[in-house]
Specification:
The chain is built from 15 helices and 17 strands. By secondary structure, it is of the alpha/beta class. A hairpin with a 2-residue loop joins β3 and β4. Pathway: Cofactor biosynthesis; tetrahydrofolylpolyglutamate biosynthesis; Cofactor biosynthesis; tetrahydrofolate biosynthesis; 7,8-dihydrofolate from 2-amino-4-hydroxy-6-hydroxymethyl-7,8-dihydropteridine diphosphate and 4-aminobenzoate: step 2/2. Keywords: ATP-binding, Folate biosynthesis, Ligase, Magnesium, Metal-binding, Nucleotide-binding.
Length: 437
């Protein structure tokens, strides 16, 4: 395959294997060596977590940008266009530069394969290499990097962060990370580097014990949400959003507003603020409340309890594991007391449907299941039926959406959830956008 334009660049990326049989950093290390080790000499904040990492990345980048820095951002998956995954100051990588980066990587991979025919990099390793080289070429001041899965063997874990952040630890990706919270926490603790600060969210005790021990062993200062810092809701904003107060040992910041809903976003904001303030202290930069307020107000994030219609109220939320669904149900109960809740749900087949469907069934007056579009990992009607044969299923999501909207009043609430892949398709449907393959 020869990369000549945007479509062939995407095709090259997506033609790489999704996973490799051996979990290590050797392949990404060899590729980055061939590219001149672009990850070196850059500043990074590294963020992992079962849930909340995307929101924390967005808040931290907005705070850093408000401070006047040139900030890279690396996240996954994308909602509308692939380029969203790699951005500088909220501007996605331009098509021409994505093509140039992929051409460079294609050339180096071919050279490495000539020396070792068994050499192959995964799709995510390829994207990671694009990101590191692009941020190096553009000379960003700092980049905020979201881990793909886990941390220890994630291809982003070749960097040395200014700060390592662990937002949450829950049961997800057990086939890759292990069956227990302790095993999963061990993978996430893999991003901690010696003597570099660590900021963590409110974690289950089993997970927190693992991370605390790792930080102690590596002499990495640890800040824990609820112990060393905290945020609490002061009011819900009439326009959509929340006001909060944040405090740690050195600061008490009041009347901060985020354009995001849910208690979990208050906790994400706490982690983001502690991370940002830790970075300011590292760089001997002053704390400015107006800068912080301005930065947080910019932190919108598609598909995270996002309102896309008023009458009826339609919410898109990317909750895709039991922990995420539990937080979603909690938010629904708090925000929409006494209102009829209609739910459209579509998930991937490797998720724990048995733990996700019962709480949704309890909170919804109508629950309709559908299939995540264009994804071989999508849960099938048979998988849904094995969990609960009483819940209605419509595999074709446009038909499912039409069906649920036909039976809804302007006072009802429609929540669409289960997968960011489903959210991406439905969000683009409502906004008239075309999704990248």
């Amino acid at each position: 395959m020869t990369v000549t334009d945007y479509q062939s660049a995407l095709a090259y990326i997506h033609s790489r294997p999704r996973l490799h049989k051996e979990a290590n950093l050797n392949r990404i290390g060899a590729l980055l060596d061939a590219l001149g080790r672009p990850q070196e000499g850059q500043q990074f904040i590294h963020v992992t977590g079962t849930n909340g990492k995307g929101s924390v990345v967005k808040m931290v980048t907005c705070l850093l940008e408000a401070t006047g820095l040139n900030v890279g951002r690396f996240t996954s998956p994308f909602i509308t266009r692939f380029n969203e995954r790699i951005a500088i100051n909220q501007t996605p990588i331009p098509d021409a530069q994505l093509v140039a980066e992929v051409q460079k990587i294609e050339q180096q991979v071919s050279r490495l394969q000539a020396a070792d025919p068994e050499f192959a990099v995964t799709e995510f390793e390829t994207i990671t290499a694009v990101m590191f080289d692009y941020f190096k070429q553009q000379a960003v001041d700092i980049a905020v990097i979201e881990v793909g899965i886990g941390g220890l063997y994630d291809s982003t874990n070749v960097l040395t962060p200014q700060i390592a952040v662990i937002t949450s630890v829950g049961l997800d990706h057990q086939n890759l990370l292990g069956p227990t919270l302790g095993a999963i926490a061990t993978h996430k603790a893999g991003i901690i580097k010696g003597h570099h600060p660590v900021v963590i969210g409110r974690l289950p005790s089993e997970a927190q014990a693992v991370i605390t021990e790792t930080a102690k062993r590596l002499a990495s200062p640890l800040a824990i949400n609820g112990v060393d810092f905290e945020a609490r809701l002061t009011k819900t904003l009439p326009t959509w959003g929340q006001q909060l107060i944040f405090s740690n040992q050195a600061n008490r910041l009041q009347q901060l507003q985020i354009p995001l809903m849910g208690d979990y976003q208050i906790q994400n904001a706490a982690v983001a603020l502690q991370t940002y303030l830790t970075y300011l202290a590292q760089q001997h930069l002053p704390v400015d409340i107006l800068t912080i307020k301005r930065g947080l107000k910019q932190a919108t994030w598609p598909g995270r309890f996002e309102k896309i219609n008023d009458e009826p109220l339609i919410i898109l939320d990317g909750a895709h594991n039991p922990e995420g669904i539990a937080e979603l149900v909690k938010t629904i109960r708090h925000q929409f007391k006494g209102r009829d809740i209609r739910l459209l749900f579509g998930a991937l087949g490797d998720k724990n449907l048995a733990q996700m469907l019962p709480p949704l069934k309890k909170v919804a007056s109508t629950l309709l299941l559908t299939t995540v579009p264009d994804n071989p990992r999508a849960a099938t009607p048979e998988q849904y039926a094995q969990v609960d044969s009483e819940i209605a299923i419509e595999p074709d999501w446009p038909v499912a959406l039409t069906r649920i909207l036909a039976d809804i009043s302007t006072d009802d609430v429609l929540v669409i959830t289960g997968s960011l892949y489903l959210i991406s398709a439905i969000r683009s449907y409502f906004k008239g956008e075309i999704i990248d393959d």
